[in-house]
What does this fold into?
Amino acid sequence: MTGILILEQALNGLQFGLMLFLLAAGLTLVFGIMDMINLAHGSLYMVGAYLVAAATAATGSFWLGLSAGIAGAALFGVLLELTVLRRLYQRDHLSQVLGTFAILLMCNEAVRFIWGSQPVLLSPPESLAGPVALLPGFDYPAYRLLIIGVGLVVALLLWVLITRTRLGMQVRAGASNREMALAMGTNVRALFTALFGLGAALCAVAGGMLGPLLAVQVGMGESILILAFVVIVIGGIGSVRGALLGALLVGVVDTAGRTLIPMLFGALLGPEAADNAGPAVASILIYVLMAAVLFWKPKGLFPSHG
Amino acid sequence: MAEAPLKSAAPSSAAAPPSLLDHALSLRGSLPLLALLLAFPLLAPLIGGDFYLGLAARILIFALAATSLNLILGFGGMVSFGHAAFIGVGAYTVGVLAQAGINSAWLVWPAAMLVAALFALVIGAISLRTQGVYFIMITLAFAQMLYYLAISFKAYGGDDGLPLPGRSLLGWGLDLADDRTFYYVTLLLAALAFALVWRLLNARFGHVLQAARENEQRMEAIGFAVYRFKLTAFVLAGALAGLAGALLANLGGFVSPSMMQWNQSGLLMVMVILGGVGHLWGGVIGAVVFLLLEEVLSHYTIYWQFLLGAVLLVVVLAAPNGLMSLLRRKDRS
It folds into this structure.
């Protein structure tokens, strides 16, 4: 019984962590290479989820909808970069905060204008709606397994892209020393735009995959944005490897904490304490984790700057 | 250890002409503003009554909070992403004491400042060991911890918040339940806090703080205990935010965890950046412009946030250092 519970929590944590990683990967690269704080990254996630939902409703197929939504979000990210964000690279962090906060407000309101304030329904494909028996006596939703699979595949592709291709080499060079990468002749403008499109596409994958589990609604980007920031700070800004580890840590700690802490409190302090303090302490856990990491490793687990 | 250089530095800075570190308060600009603010309750009935008194009080409270954030963010270079936590702590102090039957403003408001200052002392002492983005994130982390802590306080309303029985009691025949009295008291406190920040910035303390923002290592090297100066500023800003929280709780008659959620901290930051980071009036102008825009735009359309975002974006692109920098440029030309 407890073994199965722990296994289930671990899988849930892995699933959430992988989706967080998709967001954090784009965020950490934008931050590490362009030295840009992008509060609008959560908006890309939200816009991606809405596009996937709309395209799914239009085509009737989850997979077509997902592909179209990802392409649309990438296009949106590229346009955003070309029109506004490009002008903010040279500015200080505080101007970037204000500028991208403005974009966040505008995205929220535009989405509310187009799709309304009610959450939009996004259903998983029919064939994956039911559970799968992983072990005798242990059923796990097939769709969640799919999320884990997609997350792993995308993480693998990203790893190949970053370690095995020319583009990836330029990205890594930019993250560890931007000026030197510039001096060596990297086409920075194009690289930045491409990176933004990639980041937006990853956001849409996460938004589209998580859409059927969480609600697709206005403001969904903000809470996950904060988590993504926590992830990249834990992992070390600019490090994709750090983002993966940080995302898995945060995913597992957050998910497991929400189930295990109330149980633990219930066993030690009685049901009242479990009801009152349990959820709050579980929510605090990831922030304690971040504070602890920063205390011992002030630049995160994998600092990418030399 | 910092004593010797301080003494030698003091006379020379007094004799020198006003430097970049000084922030003069021109009487030509501020006296008419003060007169306008004093006369506002008399004018309010002409434009629509007591609703505007509440709005004006709210703007004043946020101006106070944003000014306290500007002290550390703009002048101390400490980008705190958790400032709303101190507002929340101040507000909760009022709420908790009210539930215990203590309602005297003379007790409750200083207590709110004190408790907020204590929280700022602990949070600042740990956070100030980090730098840059990591400082932003660790202050955020502490604020979120307090936010979830407030949610878990079921005895004080938990997620639903805590209604207050009424406004704090002032004595002396003054009744804060009267909106006009409350407005004047808020104005007095906000003006006092503003004057305090102004005096501090032009004193040696403020000069050290701003110099450390420019070059911390150099200030360390010439013998200033920079960490202690920064921590003092952080605690002071926390106390002022606590006062703002106490006033906000009184204004709304309600305390809730959402007062210290991260987007409230973000809002305060946006106000300061909008007004002008490191300008004496930055926090005030930012709070006034932001809240008035919010008020006016929401009258015209339910999609006002889109317009607000557009205005903020234009400001960022057109006025790199906030609205105050536009004024200053005009002064010079």
